[in-house]
Backbone:
């Protein structure tokens, strides 16, 4: 088996990159690989993703990475990488690539991941960072075939591949989709645009008196979102659930009927795959190749143009009023989500390693 190293700027904050990193690391370790997870600095509020990790975990610096500490951090990373056997170094963001790509010894094949979407990168500094740093790596990995193709075409990368994020588990039970409840799942942060979801729900719920919207997660937007729900007349029908323990999230999906994804941008939103694994359809803005990989419009859910609140409201209202269509889309969503099960994604990681060797 091989040595596999995952390097993150911060490996232990509550976030998508970190969740995926620890999930894949544990899965590969269970398959017999020697796996290491490196955080270049310590998280302010560390979160433990795996209760009994079978991989080694390293924190390079206990303090944030300041300008004066970069040399020390690089020296420590170089020593660690030099101590490992042949295999693969997975650099999980453009920041990590810029910090450590030149430290990777020849016996480790360098793989750069980008966890955002092409659409988001194109409007930020990420596009230039990926174009500058990923082309010389053995592989540049993106979240969907569409993202990989667009980076190959527009960033002129010769080494692109597509590899989705995995689901952490696969439930045996599915939702009956008969509880009149729309779910919004994620951190209550501005980028998630839960204000849009609340507005769309308020409009759709005018003719659906029994329905509620449950928002699962906490964050800095809580106060503003509470005020917004009151301003559009649904303060009594929008339930702010706060952070739900991971062990209880499955029950939330079992008690929901529609997932609403209203984000400004997303790479590969795992909440959509998780909801689909419980047989739940999603209404989402068509904002990335990753979203389109998860939501097949009209088959497993409904996609509407980005920021088109009227279209989102219509799609949400239509599913709220049509239980037979919800079940049809939900059944197809669960079948489609099977391709993102952890074992299948791990197979694709091992195929990627084989390609990187050639």
Residues:
């Amino acid at each position: 088996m091989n040595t596999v190293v995952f390097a993150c700027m911060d490996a232990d904050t509550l976030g998508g990159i970190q969740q995926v990193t620890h999930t894949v690391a544990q899965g590969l370790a269970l398959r017999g690989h020697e796996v290491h997870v490196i955080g270049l600095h310590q998280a302010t509020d560390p979160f433990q993703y795996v209760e009994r990790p079978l991989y080694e975990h390293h924190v390079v610096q206990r303090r944030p990475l300041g300008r004066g500490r970069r040399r020390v951090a690089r020296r420590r990373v170089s020593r660690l990488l030099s101590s490992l056997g042949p295999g693969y170094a997975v650099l999980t963001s453009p920041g990590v690539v810029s910090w450590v790509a030149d430290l990777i010894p020849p016996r480790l094949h360098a793989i750069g991941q980008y966890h955002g979407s092409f659409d988001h990168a194109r409007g930020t500094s990420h596009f230039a960072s990926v174009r500058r740093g990923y082309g010389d790596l053995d592989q540049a990995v993106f979240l969907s075939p569409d993202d990989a193709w667009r980076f190959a075409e527009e960033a002129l990368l010769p080494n692109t591949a597509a590899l989705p994020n995995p689901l952490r588990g696969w439930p045996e039970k599915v939702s009956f989709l008969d509880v009149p409840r729309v779910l919004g799942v994620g951190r209550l942060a501005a980028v998630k645009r839960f204000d849009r979801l609340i507005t769309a729900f308020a409009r759709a719920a005018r003719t659906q008196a029994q329905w509620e919207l449950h928002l699962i997660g906490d964050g800095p937007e809580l106060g503003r979102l509470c005020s917004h729900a009151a301003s559009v007349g649904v303060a009594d029908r929008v339930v702010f659930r706060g952070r739900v323990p991971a062990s209880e999230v499955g029950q939330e999906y079992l008690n929901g009927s529609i997932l609403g994804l209203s984000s400004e941008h997303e790479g590969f939103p795992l909440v959509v795959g998780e909801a689909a694994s419980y047989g739940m359809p999603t209404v989402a803005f068509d904002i990335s190749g990753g979203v389109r990989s998860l939501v097949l419009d009209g088959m497993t859910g409904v996609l509407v143009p980005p920021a088109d609140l009227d279209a989102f409201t219509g799609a949400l209202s239509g599913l709220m009023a049509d239980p037979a269509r919800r079940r049809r889309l939900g059944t197809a969503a669960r079948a489609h989500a099977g391709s993102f099960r952890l074992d299948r994604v791990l197979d694709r990681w091992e195929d990627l390693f084989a390609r990187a060797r050639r």
The radius of gyration is 21 Å. DSSP finds 14 helices and 13 strands in the chain. The domain at 181-340 is CATH 3.40.50.2000 (Rossmann fold).
